[in-house]
């Protein structure tokens, strides 16, 4: 029974992650806690184990996606590396901050986070990019696979501070951070959309790698659960890519944010009772 649940969780999280590009951690973590702590089906699950195990899974999915995007020249490695100076230490610190989470505090904070991400998904296409950082001294350039050159501003201090905060959230909740990193690159730094998505996946890989190291040091990873989830997530990602060709992404985003708002409200209410 537990293996079947893990396979389904891995498939579902990877399919949705591939369709929307937000990473499967948002689904994996609360689901593991529900079947572990609420239903008692998955043994040994605590908020920390769920978060640590999710972080390990995201290493595989992040690496796979990053390599694919590098082949299509959608990853700005040079300029994107600036964000690594923030996201790497941030995610490592976040992994240790997760020690302070109880089941009630996790439900409350993760519920608030889910609602915030759902709102962000709702308005991300309506917010106009900020042009303040597009000064000549901040401008960076990148040439994609079509030989089109883009120019966008990446002030190092602002980039490092923003990515540091996102890194903390990544390590704290065991999520990829793509739901925050992609809009940040689009709205604040004005990356072209296809480059923002690919570069964001590079951030997810490194943040997951670092946060996983922190969680492994603390014994927060169930390797049996992780192995099953990695295999099923790999298959789910392949399915998600195929579905993406047949289903409108806007429909998937609408469904996802509706579920996230409902789940967020449920977790917040549950934290008080």
Describe this structure in words.
This is Probable membrane transporter protein. Keywords: Cell membrane, Membrane, Transmembrane, Transmembrane helix. It is found in: Cell membrane; Membrane. The chain crosses the membrane at residues 6-37, 49-70, 82-101, 108-127, 157-188, 195-217, 223-240, 252-269. The chain has 273 residues and is mainly alpha-helical. It has a two-stranded antiparallel ribbon with strand order 1-2. Helices cover 74% and strands 4% of the residues. Helix 1 (2-20) crosses helix 9, helix 2 (25-38) packs antiparallel against helix 3 (47-71) and helix 4 (77-97) packs across helix 6. The chain is globular and about 55 Å long. The longest helix has 25 residues, at 47-71. The chain has one domain (1-271). A hairpin with a 5-residue loop joins strand 1 (139-143) and strand 2 (149-153). It starts with a helix and ends with a helix.
Task: Give keywords.
single chain, 273 residues, mainly alpha, two-stranded antiparallel ribbon, 10 helices, 2 strands, 74% helix, globular
Tally of separate domains: 1
Strand order of the largest sheet: 1-2
| Gyration radius, in Å | 18 Å
Distance between the termini: 29 Å
Global outline: globular
The secondary structure category is mainly alpha
């Amino acid at each position: 029974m537990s293996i079947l649940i893990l396979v389904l969780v891995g498939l579902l999280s990877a399919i949705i992650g591939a369709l929307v590009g937000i990473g499967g951690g948002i689904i994996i973590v609360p689901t593991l806690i529900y079947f572990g702590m609420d239903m008692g089906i998955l043994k040994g699950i605590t908020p920390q184990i769920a978060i640590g195990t999710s972080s390990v899974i995201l290493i595989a999915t992040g690496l796979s996606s990053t390599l694919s995007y590098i082949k299509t020249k959608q990853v700005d490695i040079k300029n994107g590396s600036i964000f690594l100076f923030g996201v790497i230490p941030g995610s490592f610190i976040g992994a240790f901050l997760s020690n302070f989470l109880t089941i009630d505090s996790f439900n409350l904070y993760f519920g608030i986070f889910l609602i915030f991400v759902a709102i962000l998904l709702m308005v991300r296409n309506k917010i106009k990019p900020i042009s303040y950082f597009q000064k000549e001294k901040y401008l960076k350039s990148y040439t994609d696979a079509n030989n089109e050159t883009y120019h966008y501003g990446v002030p190092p201090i602002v980039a490092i501070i923003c990515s540091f905060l996102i890194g903390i959230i990544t390590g704290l909740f065991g999520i990829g951070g793509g739901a925050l990193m992609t809009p940040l690159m689009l709205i604040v730094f004005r990356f072209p959309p296809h480059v923002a998505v690919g570069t964001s996946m590079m951030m997810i890989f490194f943040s997951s790698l670092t946060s996983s190291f922190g969680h492994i040091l603390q014994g927060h990873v169930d390797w049996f659960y992780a192995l099953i989830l990695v295999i099923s997530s790999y298959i789910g990602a392949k399915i998600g890519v195929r579905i993406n060709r047949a289903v409108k992404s806007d429909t998937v985003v609408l469904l996802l944010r509706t579920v996230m708002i409902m789940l967020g409200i449920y977790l917040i209410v549950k934290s008080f009772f």
